[in-house]
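Two proteins follow. First one:
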Amino acid sequence: MSVCDREAHVVKTLVVYFSNSGNTRKVAERLGAHLNADVEEIRERKTRPLLRVLEEGEKPGGLAVIKAAMGGMLGISSCIEDVQCAPELYDLVVIGSPLWAGGLTPAVRSYLKKYCKRMRRVAFFCTGESPEKGRALRQMQKLAHKVPIAVMSVPARDVRSGNIDAYISDLASRLTLA
């Protein structure tokens, strides 16, 4: 599902994500299907250059990568479009972000700042090359002003290879137990 069910309001879980290269989108869509959740992409008002997914061992480069890294390291926010799915209509909002220089993306930072008071319960996931995902997850918790009921980190190599089902199943089982 790509837009919220405004009339029936039967869906209680919302998966919200930002993705530039497509890795986080793949995880969010698969998780949303597994949870029978509404899924919504966080969109920035200003289009960001596409950050190409790097092959194993390839070094990042270019101005777009430098800007993305600065946004992740410095805690910069961005202007995002209004959402279609109101988070207050859901029992649980699962928020996903790629890692940029080990930190949270500006778009997800903006979403959390704008909607944190409207969310009842949260869970977080991130995708990326960095083995240290704790910083981004801590940033998400701080901005949400809530302790997540579950978190998940998915290495980019596993997303690229399509090996994400175990991650999805594990997070889904922890969400249903909470």
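Second one, unrelated to the first:
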Amino acid sequence: MAESGTQLNRKELEKIYDANYSNYERILADIVVDVQKKIRECGFNPSIKTRVKSFKSYFAKKLKLYRQAHANPQAMLPITDFLGIRIITPFMGDIAKILTCIKENFIVEEIEDKGASHSFREFGYESIHVLIRIPDQFLPFAEGLETPVCEIQLRTILQDAWAEVEHELIYKSEFSPTDEPLKRKLASLNAMLSLSDMLFQELRDYQHALAIELSKRRDSFITSIETIIDKEFTGKYIKPEVEENPDEDFVYSESLDEMLLHALNAHNAKKYDVAIRMYTHIIEATSRKDIQALIYKHRGMAYFS
């Protein structure tokens, strides 16, 4: 989009914007279909939002950049977030994986970590902005764009929630808090959201680790049965594979979840005495009948292994 002389020509810019708006929507719609397909092929199904920058927002940013470059208007930075895609995932750990997926499937012009140097006005942790080059097949419809790129933002659900609230609270109202108590409240809110994201990720990692150990326990049980059958019908004993032994130290102050994970790990590593002690302690440490019933089953299998 062009400007006249050393002054921005709002009418000319708006005319170009209106003439090409339908093409901008078409490009963005085609790109998001491609992005969504590639991300799903990588094993993810995040929420995705899109937007073409409104002319009001575009011109306001153009004016801001123009004023910043008043000494040399010809060197004014281009607007690169005209076409925007926001990818929203529940967990922090997915962000890096989705970023890798994007880098493997698109031409990436720039990656910016918005959390690297944040202030109280910004989310207190990782928020990734990626500029991908518009694929060649869409370039005929990109006339009027200052640079043929599309911005992809990668955020967690909580980061996106903060961005929406921040936009309403600060940017839309042109509000700039100056008093320290209010700054501290905003900083505290950022910290709580950041901590929540980290805790959600830790819970997910724990569930994943527990699922792996339970799967190993099931596989080990099936292998034991097959070994007995082989011995019964062939007279040969096939020794099952044994994984590296886990740490035998058992910290009784751990949570029940952590103790169960350690018990399963010991059980899978054929350390039956250690596993039985752990299972017994879990049974004694909880009054919940459903948990006790589950642990009794595992302890029984350890007894007869």
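SUMMARY FIELD: The first helix runs from residue 10 to 41. The chain has two domains: 10-176, 200-303.
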